[in-house]
């Protein structure tokens, strides 16, 4: 079930909200929690019911492991738990990739069966790995099975994050605001959700058509011009941001409706002036996970610059592979590892600071170039698009064969750039709402969000919506 779908708006969400609030009043927080867990399992099983069995099995194993680790902390037991989680992820996500590697190296595949990739497996796997490690390190304590099931399965963050931590989520269940009808939370949640919905429906999906048209044309043998390649990649660069940050806003808004605060996942990453800053602003909970559970255990920056650069490369290569089972994702991660190495070396050697406009432009272009590999179906397609970006083919043409309807695309691209580069982000807007609920001295975000919701729903009714990009991870 998609957040951006009429069944979700008209059926699932109001039913779960009403049932959760009613159960809170009738039987307290535990009853509300039970309804929320049940609703989350229905949400997860909507696409493919057998996935619920896999999720429950994974939850049961990790819950029991955590109890054992808490009772007698053991590096061996924790390591086994991490290995089990990674093994499950590898089987479902990377079996085909391993088969492809074996085909190249040995001339024959491994004969592994095709499996359906469970939604959100990369996210709930990392979440459970973090939980086991935190239990081992004494950063959190295991609760009961209902709380743990909620921690993993809570539907706003289950499919595509943000990656949450047990020590941050479970204490909120004992707060008075949990599952209570509070006007402040409802209003803030609706504003956040409406902004995220508009990002997805009105901007990301429109730009997605442009990116899809460019990559489809190339796959059909069209020699892209420099202009077409840049237009298509600008579309994708803004599409993936508004698609993923739109999802994150909707997730935060949904959490707030139930009186729960999820971590912020985006902080205007395209305003960054170097790649280090970009990764502090983009997919923040993944960056934090990779730092805390991979980069720092590898030694971080404690053993000299060469070790630091090595660790950065390892982390970014694995981060790329986490996104997808393909060499293009490994290359994407490797490029970001190289960018981070250059940025850290620049700082370490106290090189002169570049003008802000120059550093901003270089950062944005580097991110865009790396997105080519992220979006391409294979290395050959990435190479063709990069060649066009650097002017290896015709420079100026814009063919209707590539872009069927250019004007709406250019308008959406201009709007996306203005918002990404100059507008306040969702976190800044909600902070203003909290500080000044009436917003007498600023824009009325309640009215704006109402208008955005109306426009998005009408567009959704007329044209439908595409799945979120990060659902494939």
From TrEMBL:
Please give the Pfam families that the UniProt record associates with this protein. MBOAT
Residue spans crossing the bilayer: 44-64, 76-95, 145-164, 240-260, 312-334, 354-374
Q: Does the keyword Cell membrane apply?
A: yes
A single GO molecular-function term is: acyltransferase activity
InterPro entries the UniProt entry points to: Ac/AlaTfrase_AlgI/DltB (IPR024194), AlgI (IPR028362), MB_O-acyltransferase (IPR051085), MBOAT_fam (IPR004299)
Major localisation: membrane
Q: Does the keyword Ribosomal protein apply?
A: no
**Gene Ontology biological-process annotations:** alginic acid biosynthetic process
The protein's topology relative to the membrane is:
Multi-pass membrane protein
Q: What family, per the record?
A: Belongs to the membrane-bound acyltransferase family.
Q: Which PANTHER family does the UniProt record give?
A: ACYLTRANSFERASE (PTHR13285), TEICHOIC ACID D-ALANYLTRANSFERASE (PTHR13285:SF23)
Can you say what this protein is called? Probable alginate O-acetylase AlgI
């Amino acid at each position: 079930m998609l957040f951006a779908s009429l069944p979700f708006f008209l059926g699932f969400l109001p039913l779960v909200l009403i049932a959760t609030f009613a159960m809170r009043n009738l039987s307290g927080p535990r009853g509300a929690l039970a309804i929320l867990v049940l609703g989350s399992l229905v949400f997860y099983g909507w696409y493919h019911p057998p996935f619920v069995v896999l999720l429950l099995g994974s939850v049961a194993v990790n819950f029991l492991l955590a109890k054992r680790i808490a009772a007698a902390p053991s590096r061996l037991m924790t390591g086994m738990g991490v290995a089990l989680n990674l093994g499950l992820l590898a089987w479902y996500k990377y079996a085909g990739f391993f088969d492809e590697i074996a085909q190249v190296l040995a001339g024959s595949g491994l004969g592994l069966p095709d499996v359906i990739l469970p939604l959100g497996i990369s996210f709930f796997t990392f979440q459970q790995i973090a939980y086991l490690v935190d239990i081992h390190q004494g950063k959190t304590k295991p609760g009961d099975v209902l709380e743990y099931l909620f921690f993993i399965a809570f539907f706003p963050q289950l499919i595509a994050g943000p990656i949450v931590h047990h020590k941050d989520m479970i204490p909120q269940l004992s707060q008075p605001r949990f599952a209570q009808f509070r006007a402040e939370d409802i209003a803030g949640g609706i504003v956040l959700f409406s902004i995220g919905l508009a990002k997805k429906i009105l901007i990301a999906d429109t730009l997605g058509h442009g990116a899809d048209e460019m990559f489809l044309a190339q796959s059909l043998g069209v020699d892209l011009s420099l202009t077409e390649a840049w237009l298509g990649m600008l579309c994708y660069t803004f599409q993936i941001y508004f698609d993923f940050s739109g999802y994150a806003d909707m997730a935060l808004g949904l959490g707030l409706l139930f009186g729960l605060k999820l971590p912020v996942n985006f902080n205007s990453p395209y305003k960054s002036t170097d790649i280090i800053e970009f990764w502090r602003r983009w997919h923040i909970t993944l960056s934090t996970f990779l730092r805390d559970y991979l980069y720092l255990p590898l030694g971080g920056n404690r053993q000299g610059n060469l070790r630091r650069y090595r660790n950065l490369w390892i982390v970014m290569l694995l981060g790329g592979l986490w996104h997808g089972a393909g060499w293009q994702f490994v290359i994407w991660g490797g490029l970001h590892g190289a960018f981070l190495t250059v940025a850290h070396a620049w700082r370490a050697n106290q090189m002169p600071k570049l003008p802000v406009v120059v550093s901003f432009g270089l950062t944005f272009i580097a991110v865009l170039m790396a997105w080519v590999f992220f979006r391409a179906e294979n290395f050959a397609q990435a190479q063709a698009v990069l060649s066009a970006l650097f002017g290896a083919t015709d420079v100026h043409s814009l063919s209707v064969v590539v872009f069927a309807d250019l004007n709406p695309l250019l308008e959406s691209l201009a709007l996306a750039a203005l918002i990404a580069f100059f507008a306040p982000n969702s976190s800044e807007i909600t902070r203003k709402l909290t500080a000044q609920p009436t917003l007498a001295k600023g824009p009325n975000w309640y009215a704006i969000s109402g208008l955005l919701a109306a426009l998005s729903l009408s567009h959704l009714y007329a044209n439908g919506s595409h799945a979120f990009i990060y659902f494939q991870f």
